[in-house]
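How a chain folds remains the central question behind the approach discussed here. For one protein, we set the task of working out the structure tokens from the amino acid sequence alone. The sequence in question and its structure tokens are set out directly beneath this paragraph.

_____
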Amino acid sequence: MAKAKVNTLEFDRDACNNCGMCITVCPHGVFAEDGRAVRLADPDACMECGACALNCSQEAIRVDSGVGCANAMIMAALTGRKEVTCGCDSCC
């Protein structure tokens, strides 16, 4: 099982059926086509929104949604904050 370094994303390539839904729904290009199964193209770009895991029919993807940058952006929008702090080094 492949894991990202800066977030909770886990991907089980052996369980993947190559449907491509994770590629379609991911807003940051974390996944890419790669023959028989999808591959992690940029796992550290994951903002932990959870769209990939929710749309994976094989349960090959696990991520703790609501803990990363996606959650920070939503909370900033709801509370009117102009600066988003998500605890990561990348720009959210």
In short: The chain has a mean pLDDT of 83. The chain is about 20% helix and 10% strand. The helical segments are 21-25, 51-54, 69-79.
